[in-house]
């Protein structure tokens, strides 16, 4: 019966694809200069775009970035990679509106809104932002429900890996090696999380990158893609911890990443239907955020007194909107804080579904955390001088 059920699902999928619209593998921005994120803000942004092979459409954009970074030597970088169903769409004269009816892709709009919030958070200030676009959606069916074209997921997953291995790796590697004293936050959503993983796997076991943070939101990536590296990283982390014997609060662990132990943060909503149910159907493997053995923290929305921390070793409040709690008590909280990969599961109060990202709760919490990291970084740099 299971076989017939799968065959039926495939047959239904084929029917849905009949009469579908192909989304071209194209660039939208061309060779672009850094521009203000929004009118009145100091933060600037550039757009990088890659094709399905992972190659940058505009290799000369790397030189543009180098000049930009040289002109703004102290600004942190916030880089965002979109995922499934998105791209870098920018409506041109005579062209139809982007998917969803706006002049830009909805992920691009969410990211710019987040950057505006971040610049206005105390201790943050202006940043250099990078939006990485690729063909996250190859077709549209006649049904508006996004997962109706889930039969393309394997093809789009492969494309995300190519983007990670090629264009995205080139950008992040430049920031990591050519500008190693600059603070960089790399954020990937959905298949953008897959791209981030494949971009950074190559150097994950090197000496800790104390200036880089890797964040994946509802990532569409198999746990096995990270499994071996995670095991080796955590073995090294345990050795360092046994040697140092340091105790840290949750706030310190998130803000300062002691000993370079933490490498990746995963924020996974349990209300994410595509990653929770459709992804394992397509790949026969659990996604990173749904590997029960890896879940280290729970996350809930909060406000007012509900955001008050009563157990600093096990709890952390961010932006007056989000409470993070380590799984376990006492020494278990310390163990979770020092893990190389934090897998934090949320409910629908933090993310109502796969594409509900950088919403008000997430944006407030993420902006608070990045601001704290930036402030800590400035203190560390001042101490060095």
3D structure, described in words:
- It is a single chain.
- This protein has 385 residues and is an alpha/beta fold.
- It has one domain.
- 38% of the residues lie in helices and 16% in strands.
- The chain is built from ten helices and 13 strands.
- An eleven-stranded mixed beta sheet has the order 2-3-5-4-7-8-9-13-10-12-11, sandwiched between helices. A two-stranded antiparallel ribbon has the order 1-6.
- The longest helix has 25 residues.
- The protein is globular and about 60 Å long.
- About 4% of the residues have low confidence.
The overall strand count is: 13
| Gyration radius from CA atoms, angstroms | 20 Å
Helix content estimate: 25-40%
Oligomer: single chain
Structural class: alpha/beta
**How many domains make up the 3D coordinates?**
1
Low-pLDDT runs of 5+ residues are 4-18
Q: Given the structure, what is the number of helices?
A: 10
Across the major sheet, the strand order is 2-3-5-4-7-8-9-13-10-12-11
Sheet of most strands? 11 strands, mixed
- β-strand percent reads 15-25%
Mean pLDDT across all amino acids: 88
Run of helices and strands: HEEEHEHEEHEHEHHEHEEEHEH
What characteristic shape results from the CA principal axes? globular
Which characteristics define this entry?
385 residues, alpha/beta, 11-stranded mixed beta sheet, two-stranded antiparallel sheet, 10 helices, globular
Fold blueprint:
Elements (H helix, E strand, L loop, with lengths): L1 H16 L3 E2 L12 E2 L7 E6 L11 H11 L5 E5 L24 H14 L8 E6 L5 E2 L12 H25 L6 E6 L1 H10 L11 E6 L6 H21 L5 H7 L7 E6 L3 H11 L11 E7 L13 E4 L3 E5 L4 H7 L3 E6 L13 H25 L1
């Amino acid at each position: 019966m299971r076989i017939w059920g799968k065959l039926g699902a495939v047959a239904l999928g084929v029917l849905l694809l009949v009469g579908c619209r192909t989304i071209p593998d194209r660039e939208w921005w061309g060779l672009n200069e850094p521009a203000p994120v929004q009118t009145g803000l100091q933060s600037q942004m550039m757009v990088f775009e890659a094709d399905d092979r992972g190659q940058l459409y505009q290799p000369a954009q790397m030189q543009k970035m180098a000049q930009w970074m040289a002109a703004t030597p102290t600004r942190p970088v916030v880089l965002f990679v979109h995922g499934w169903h998105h791209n870098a769409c920018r409506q041109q004269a005579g062209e139809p509106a982007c998917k969803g009816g706006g002049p830009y892709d909805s992920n691009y709009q969410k990211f710019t809104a987040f950057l505006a919030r971040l610049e206005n958070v105390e201790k943050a200030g202006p940043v250099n932002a990078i939006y990485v676009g690729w063909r996250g959606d190859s077709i549209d069916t006649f049904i508006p429900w996004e997962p109706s074209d889930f039969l393309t997921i394997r093809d789009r997953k492969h494309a995300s890996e190519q983007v990670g291995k090629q264009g995205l790796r080139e950008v992040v590697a430049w920031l990591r090696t050519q500008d190693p004293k600059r603070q960089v936050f790399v954020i990937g959503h959905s298949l953008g999380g897959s791209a981030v993983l494949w971009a950074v796997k190559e150097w994950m076991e090197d000496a800790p990158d104390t200036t880089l943070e890797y964040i994946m939101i509802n990532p569409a990536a198999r746990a096995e893609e990270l499994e071996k590296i995670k095991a080796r990283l955590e073995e090294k982390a345990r050795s360092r911890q046994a040697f140092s014997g340091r105790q840290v609060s949750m706030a310190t662990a998130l803000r300062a990443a002691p000993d370079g132990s933490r490498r990746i943060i995963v924020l996974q909503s349990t209300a994410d239907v595509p990653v929770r149910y459709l992804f394992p159907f397509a790949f026969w493997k659990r996604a990173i955020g749904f590997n029960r053995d890896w879940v280290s923290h729970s996350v809930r929305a909060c406000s007012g007194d509900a955001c008050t921390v009563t157990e600093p070793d096990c709890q952390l409040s961010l932006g007056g909107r989000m409470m993070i709690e380590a799984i376990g008590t006492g020494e278990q909280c310390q163990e979770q804080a020092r893990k190389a990969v934090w897998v934090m599961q949320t409910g629908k109060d933090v993310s109502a579904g796969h594409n509900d990202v950088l919403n008000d709760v997430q944006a407030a919490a993420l902006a608070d955390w990045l601001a704290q990291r930036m402030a800590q970084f400035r203190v560390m740099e001042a101490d060095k001088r």
